[in-house]
Structures are given as structure tokens and as C-alpha cells.
Please model this.
Amino acid sequence: MSQFTQQVILGLLLGGIYVAVALGFSLVWGVLNIVNLAHGALIMVGSYITWTLFARLHVDPFLSLPLDAIALFVIGYALQRGIINRVIRAPLLFTFLLTFGLNLVIVSLLLLLFTADFRSVTTTYSGAGLHLGSVVIPYIRLGGLLVALVLAGILWLILNRTRIGAGILAVGADRDAAQLVGIDLRHLYALTFAIGAAFAGVAGGIISTFQSITPTAGDPYTLQSFAVVILGGLGRVSATIVGGLAFGLIEVLGQSAPGLGSGYANAIAFVVLVLVLIVRPRGLLGRLA
Amino acid sequence: MIAREQRLPRWVRRAVIAVAALGLLYVILGPLTSLDPAQQAGLPLLTDKLWFRIATTVAMFVVMAAGWNIIGGLTGYASFGNIAFFGLGAYAVGVLVSNQRWPFVAALIAAPIIAGLFGLLMGVALLRLRGHYFAVATLGVGVAVGEVVNNVPSLGASTGLFLPIVRSDLLFFYLMLGAALLAVIVTWVILRSRFGYGLLAIRENEEAAAVIGVNTTFYKVAAFCLAAALTGLAGGIFAQWNSFVNQENVFPISANVQMILMAVIGGTGTVLGPVAGAVVLELIIQTLAGGGTNAVYSQIGLGLLLMGCVIFIPRGVIDFFGGRSRLSLGYLRQTLRETSA
Model:
């Protein structure tokens, strides 16, 4: 029984990472109608910033998270303003291919800069954890979950309590009407993408604390973000939280099921994903399209 | 008569632009291929063996791009999981030849059938989804199938399957070429049939197509099956050609996107677009890859090329050089205007 509890806790902690990873992805998809295949690459840029600061200047990984956010915000704004805005009205296949190309370029640049070696951020508290009876909660993972929830709170505040957020929601609802009331679409698209990228950067920072990173390590997270958004539903912060936690649970519990192992992680995730798509295309908490 | 005289220079002008563009591309990307002078002297078509390998690979991608074109280009369902069919075809031949001791020819007939049946299952389940949902669901299936195959012991698990080696460059070149021709002919026939018009109608407006009496579910699934069977055939030939099958070499996600890119660069929904795209892109990739030590630069080049094509010529080179456009620079500008924010 305690082993089951441990699995559930690990699942929820993993789910926290997925929440952090999927928040920006969900925002960009919901408002810009772009499935950003370069999301994983942006995450890795964040990871490498955290790693560089840690390895060169011994900055605590959790303290470098705001820097990840600022750097990725700038990069994200430039990418959207300079490149992605050019195809924003093209059919979805083209935005798909464009962001795939972007992913390829960013990952390759990271390979040139940092090589393909595995890098890890090992702090003094990396191996430690909170012991509750026979259940162990690693501090790093707990920190990740907390950061994810803070991120979700920040996104909710931005969207619901600021002028920019109102603009973003307006564009997401009806871009032509938003333009009519005087919103600068190009700027707002870029801003939305920049926020999404900043969140990806923070997620990358968290990821570097518990797994070894290589330039391609971000790619699975793109697919997992997609799965989280499908599972939870598009267009709400709460849906992303539910989707992320559920996805983490499914992955951890699925792998411990008899006859399956860690080799099946992606397969389990996608069988669930496809089932959800078929049975409930709006996701668990999604709104009607 | 006057119209014809005006038309000729335009063709010439386009050809000049085409050559100039390719030249420029080579000048820009050429230095990236290799820093080693010896490598630079070694053109991709230098030795016969290498030439056969490249030509066979090009033909293989023609099959895959043409197969994708049937579901993605004609029907408008952007599948990102066609690599699953390629892998299944390859594994079908792998298992039947190496475990069951079937003759290669018999296994090669079974490969497209197995891939096609899987396409049927996948199509019935997934073709009700649209847009991003369909794209990523198929991507998920592609990844999942590869992972399952990699874990099943009777399929060689992570070791893979070894097939008896057949040393004949010519045989596999002709087999792939035959498959490529078959794919082109199938596309051509589809585009001239009632079935093809049904698919185009679905692409343009699925509800309207259903209203005028197109059995959309049947048409979509049939198109998916055809694409699956063709891609599976290419996989089957590849398995014996390569004489080694594992997850990494027959379920690469990169090839998945490569075939789509080829169809898009060439021109989706056309008969020859995927062929042009496959030839052009594969040659560029081979040139970029050089000795293989500069894979990173070739990836950057490929990514930039992909982004440039998507932004400037989303309707493909076939439309760019042979379409209705008047001035090529104006064409680029107009495309940009149509899709920009």
C-alpha cells in the first residue's frame, strides 16, 4: 500500500513538471492557434541557461529561473515578431512545419554551443527528500511542483487581472474583432508567444535540476505538452493543471502495471491520448470549441 | 501567337531564376558541408556505389512523399504518423524473412497488405479528428508503434532483426524505382477518378462534400489505406536492402517530417510535386551531409530551408515555376502578404 502511495506521489510530482511544461504551450496554442513544435527547444534553452549559471557561477538553479524567463521572453518575442507572424494566417500544416524547422535550428545551435554531452545540475540538496513514514518526497521534485503552481497562478493573474491579459483573451476569442477595437495584433501575438516561451524557459530550468540534459532532451516534452493539453482541455489554466497532474499519474502508474515497463512510457501516454481524443475530444475540463 | 511569344521568355526567366536560386543555395550551403578539402572534391555522384545508394534513397522518399500526398495533399489530413507504415512494412519483411523463412518476394507482397490493414484500423479510429488533433494523434501512434516494437522480444526487441544479405545495388534500385513509379501512377489515376474528386472535395470542405453525396468516412479511410500500403511497400524493400531492421532505422521521426517537407516543397496535391520535392531535398540533404561529420550544419541548413520554403513558397516549387504567377518576386511578396499577421 505504501508503495502505491509512493507511486501516486511520484506521479503527482511528475505531473507538476508537466504542468510547468504545458502552460506556455497551451497559451500559444489557444491564442495563436499554433501547435509550437519548437516548444521543446525553447525549454532546453532555459535548461542550458540554468546549467551555465550553475556550472560557471554556482548560481542555485531555483534562483536562475527568473533569468530563464527574461531571456526566453526576449527570444520568444523576436521569434514571433520576426518569423512566425509571417505564416500566422497560413494553413496549420505550415505553422507545424515552420516551428519544426525552428526546433531543428535551435537544437542544432545548442549542439554547436554545448555539444551533445550530458550535463547535469547537482546541488547539495539534490539527493535529499522529505521522509513521511515509508514514503519519500524528493525536495527537488517538490520544488518543481511548487514552481509549476506559482507559474499557473502568475498566468492566471496575467490573463484575468491585467490589460495585456484582456487583450490576449480577446485575440484568442476573435482576432478580427480584437483588431477592430484597436489591438495591435502583431505586437500582441509576439507578446503571447514571448510569455509562452518565458514559461518554457522556467520549465527548462526546473527540468535541469532532476534530469541530465542534452540539446535533444526537450523534444519529448513537446509531445507531452500536447498530451497534457488534450487531456485537460484547451483554453483554461485550471485545465492545464488537471491535465498535467493526470498525465503524470497515468505515466507513473502505467509503467508499474504488470507486463509493462519504463520502455513503454510514450506508448502508454499516447494510447491514453488517442482514447481521450476519440471519447472526449474537448478534454477533461475543456470548453466547447 | 503574340501570347505564345510572351510566354516563352517567362519560362526562360523562371528557369534562370531556378538555376540561380539553386546556385545561390549551393554557394551559401556549400562551405557548410565540409572544411576538409578532400571531402569537398568528393561530389555526391562520384562513385557508382554511392550513386546507387543515393538514387535508391531518393526513390524511397518519392514513394513516401507520394504516399503522404494522397492523405495529406489530396484529402487535406496532415498525417504525422506515416512512418508507422514504413516501419510496419519493414518489420513485416524482417519477421517473415528472418524468423519465418519466407522468400523475400512473398514477404514483400505481405508488407503493404499488413501496413494497409494497420492504416485501416488507424484511419477508422483517427480520421474523425481534424487539424492539430489528427496531426498529433498520428504522430503519437507513430511513436507508440515504434516503442512497442522495440519492446517485443519476438520482434528482436532493441537488438533488431537481421536479414540474409542480398548484394545487388541494381536490384534494390529497380525495386524502389518501381515502387516510386507505382506511387506516381496511383496518384495520377486517383486525380482522374471520381474517387480523387471526392478526396479534393473533402479537402476543400468536408461538410459540403458529405452533403453532395461523398461518403466521406469511406473516402478518407480508403485514401489513408492507400497511403499506408505504398509507404509499407517502401519499408519492405528498405528492410531487405538494409538487411537490418530496428526501431531507430525504420521509425525515425525525422523521416516522417522529411516526407511531408518533400511533398510541401514540391507542391501538395499534385502528381509530380512529391517527386520534385523528394529529388531536390534529398540531393540537398546528401550534399549538406557531406562526410557525415558535419551533421549539425546540415541540420541547421535543413531547418532554415524548411522555414524559408514554408514562408515564401508554401504552394511548392511546381506552383512557383510552373503556376499562374507572373513575376516571381511579386509571387513571393504576395504569398507573404496572404499569410502574415
